[in-house]
Design goal:
With 175 residues, the chain is mostly beta strands. The two termini are 25 Å apart. A hairpin with a 4-residue loop joins strand 2 and strand 3. The chain has one domain: Superoxide dismutase, copper/zinc binding domain (Immunoglobulin-like), CATH 2.60.40. The radius of gyration is 17 Å and the shape is globular. The chain binds copper (II) ion. InterPro entries: SOD-like_Cu/Zn_dom_sf, SOD_Cu/Zn_/chaperone, SOD_Cu_Zn_dom. GO terms for molecular function: copper ion binding. It holds the Pfam family Sod_Cu.
């Protein structure tokens, strides 16, 4: 393919992506001091979103991770409360194991190694980056954030499964 034709193809692909679908997104994860500790990538699948997360310097052990409903991590010093509650357009109860759940922001726990590192692949069939398939839209007008809590999520109790304080946060941004 010659260069002008390649550029034209790229321009068309860019146009198509901008006007229709979001296939990928990313999040830079910060701590309560505002320091970057890791990254997450989110990829749209046929029936849900695949999340790949790597981070270092976390306290070891199980940690809840959720998709919160507002895309801001600006209030690190206040504990990331500005990211609000979970992405939950259908008003479901919290908890992957709750009969009245789950809400759309629910995810399985992370398990951080003794050296503070974690790498995880998480899948949610409840969400979509751009809202396709009637799934909860992650990149809506006010965006969304990935939030990691200090404790494990018991996947049942309200409001957040006993997960405790919010200690890490990453604004989800479409590519
Ligand atoms: Cu949470």
């Amino acid at each position: 393919m010659n260069l002008p034709r390649l550029l034209a193809t790229c321009a068309l692909l860019t146009l198509a992506t901008a006007s229709h679908a979001t296939e990928r997104a990313g999040a830079s994860i910060i701590d309560r001091q505002g320091q970057t500790v890791g990254t997450a990538t989110l990829v749209e699948g046929p029936q849900g979103v695949m999340i790949h997360l790597t981070a270092k310097g976390l306290p070891p052990g199980p940690k809840a991770i959720h998709i919160h409903s507002v895309g801001t991590c600006d209030d690190a010093d206040k504990g990331f409360v500005a990211s609000k509650g979970h992405l939950n357009p259908d008003g479901r109860k919290h908890g992957l194991m709750n009969p009245e759940g789950p809400d759309a922001g629910d995810l399985p726990n992370l398990f951080v190694h003794a050296d503070g590192s974690v790498e995880a692949e998480l899948y949610t069939p409840l969400t979509s980056l751009d809202g396709r398939g009637g799934r909860a839209k992650i990149l809506d007008e006010d965006g969304a954030a990935l939030v990691i809590h200090e404790n494990r999520d018991d996947h049942a109790t309200q409001p957040i499964g006993g997960a405790g304080a919010r200690v890490f946060c990453g604004v989800i941004k479409g590519d």
